[in-house]
């Protein structure tokens, strides 16, 4: 496990480097190998390479234990040690399991195409791989035909066919019961006294107490107290339940 740093710069420069752990903003302390807010030794030498690689500055920091180099992103800052440690560059690095490998290996160390991994395979319960493998177990097209199947909130299977006309459809009484006309009176109940007033048998006209039967029914639907002019002072409705 290691962090490998490679940087090109003017030859014969005196360079150093520091490391920041981005997930908590702490810096590597070269004196004890830990990440802290204020390291005692925040910068280490970044030596120049030799031979045909003059002008390349490199160092390999090892060991890089996972307890300190936790999975995530890091920034390596390059300093000019001959100019008050001024920053000359910043490099990005990603660490996994204490190493700067850019590809995260699968269990057992093999690097494979993740799309070729069997599901749910060895993925632990609750992980994305296990959830996909255990629940996405049929072709999506087999659940998208709209030709029947269990619908959420419906106990029995529902089959939807082609609707070419409106023949064969009826309105159940409960459809009118949901429509409120007056407080405590729904649409179906409101139709009963309307029919009675239009076509029901009337008795007591001119006596001050008028009784009106339901339309095509012997049930009294309207009882009204009136004066000689027909003005109603009280009305009692007997509505169907």
Helix and strand topology:
Elements: E1 3-8, E2 15-21, E3 26-29, E4 34-36, E5 44-46, E6 56-61, E7 72-80, E8 86-95, H1 128-135, H2 173-177, E9 180-182, E10 185-186, H3 187-199, E11 202-203, E12 209-213, E13 220-226, E14 232-237
Antiparallel strand pairs: 1-6, 2-3, 2-5, 2-7, 3-4, 7-8, 9-10, 11-12, 12-13, 13-14
Fold and architecture overview:
This protein is mainly beta. Among the domains are: 3-95, Immunoglobulin-like, CATH 2.60.40; 179-237, no CATH class. Helix content is 11%, strand content 30%. It has three helices and 14 strands. The strands form four sheets. Strands 2, 3, 4, 5, 7 and 8 form a six-stranded antiparallel sheet that branches. It has a four-stranded antiparallel sheet with strand order 11-12-13-14, with helices on one face. Strand 7 (72-80) and strand 8 (86-95) form a beta hairpin.
